[in-house]
Write a structure and sequence with these properties.
This protein has 209 residues and is an alpha+beta fold. The chain has one domain. It has seven helices and ten strands. A hairpin with a 2-residue loop joins strand 6 and strand 7. The longest helix has 18 residues.
Length: 209
């Protein structure tokens, strides 16, 4: 069986766009905010060719940063979700419980610094802020032996944004997804640390709500 394709932040920010088309849109948005000039402000000489090349490479770098698995973001938040953690601890080593998750939000933020180099020499840099916010509607979760094994029906509104501290917002979009399609539950997902060893078999995010 092949693994289902993960849903990434790119699918929200650049929905349906082929790779080069997405890079093109990012380059256009970066240019609108004057980002290439900002990134090259320390370069001794800025030609049209250099500005164009820098803009395209910055767009490619931003596109690469969007390969964030939204399901993993949700799971990372749930490992800090108090109701889920308590349920996970109660179910060790082999109990099963269902817990209702109220509406809650899981966020993920990273602040990379991109470098612009020419012939191996750094001529510029750009600080970015990439944000992912998952607003999850109420849904039921089934926990067995400290691990998430099933999710009931429920939707999630995902917001992905790219900004630069020196110029402000660059691009932001939202998309509503079904949680069950976002999180890969073909295998149980551990919610707490290392689980205690099971006895030999016999025959026969911090998030609160």
């Amino acid at each position: 069986m092949t693994s289902p394709a993960s849903i990434t932040a790119r699918a929200v920010l650049l929905p349906g766009a082929a790779r080069e088309a997405g890079v093109g849109e990012l380059a256009e948005r970066l240019h609108e905010r004057g980002v290439e000039q900002l990134a090259l402000r320390r370069a001794p000489v800025v030609t049209v060719v250099l500005r164009s090349a820098a803009l395209r490479e910055l767009a490619r770098a931003v596109d690469g940063l969007l390969e964030i698995d939204l399901g993993r973001v949700a799971v990372a938040g749930w490992r800090r979700y108090d109701r889920l953690r308590r349920t996970a601890m109660r179910t060790c080593p082999d109990r099963v419980e269902q817990v209702e998750l109220f509406e809650h939000e899981v966020t993920h933020t990273c602040c990379p610094r991109l470098e612009v180099t020419v012939d191996g020499n750094r001529v510029g840099e750009l600080a970015l802020e990439l944000g992912v916010a998952l607003l999850l509607q109420p849904l039921a979760a089934t926990v067995r032996g400290g691990m998430l094994v099933a999710l009931g029906p429920g939707d999630c509104t995902v917001t992905v944004s790219v900004a630069a501290p020196e110029v402000g917002p660059i691009l932001q979009r939202k998309r509503t997804l079904h949680v069950a399609t976002m999180v890969d539950l073909r295998r149980p997902i551990p919610l707490i640390g290392r689980q205690p060893a099971r006895p030999p078999a016999t025959p026969g995010a911090d998030l609160t709500a």
